Amino acid sequence: MDNAVRLMQVGGVVAIISVVIGLFSKGTIHDAIVKANESATATKKLTASEIDSLTTVSMVSAVVVGLIAVALWFWMASVNGKGKQWGRIVATVFFVLSVLSLVASLARPESVLTRILGLVQLIVGAAAIYFMYQKDSSEFYRASSAPRM
Fold first, then answer.
1. Close Cβ partners of 19 (under 8 Å, ≥ 6 residues apart)
2. Which residues of the chain are modeled with pLDDT < 70?
3. Three-class SS string for 116-148?
4. Per the domain annotation, does 52 fall within a domain?
5. What pLDDT shows up at residue 22?
6. pTM of whole model > 0.90?
């Protein structure tokens, strides 16, 4: 179980790195929006002001989602480290959602570094899930949730 908790903490650190990179990716986001705008029909083209606004909204959204991810990684590490049975289930659901999110992100323009960090988080999450479902971990959850006398 210790390995799973450590991996969740590593996932939180990787998520922090992703947030920091998100803060410095304004140019990349702007360029992706401009490129998408170039292929839009004449009636749906964005103005320069709309492109700037969309860039800002995209950056803020990415940072907010990233900070939520950081909080979830560390929260799941804490909950599972305490042997809360429901924490293992919630962590598994979050992992499935992260897989779906990574697949969906393939349709969006993102920097190579962002994709790599997303893949690293997925691998860390998969390893944490693996360790959480080992026999020793299951015994830890059982012992932690057993009524105390």
1. 63, 66, 67, 70
2. 109, 148-149
3. HHHHHHHHHHHHHHHHHCCHHHHHHHHHHHCCC
4. no
5. 83
6. no
Q: Domain range holding 140?
A: 2-23+63-145
Place of tokens 């830890």: 140
Residue 83 lies in a domain: yes
pLDDT of residue 110: 73
* Other C-beta atoms lying within 10 Å of the C-beta of residue 112: 7
Identify the DSSP state of 45: P
Cα–Cα dist 89/70, whole Å: 18
CA distance 27 to 10: 28
Domain count, the chain: 1
> Residue type for 130, please?
Y
User: Is there a domain that residue 89 lies in?
Assistant: yes
In angstroms, how far is the first alpha carbon of the chain from the final one? 24
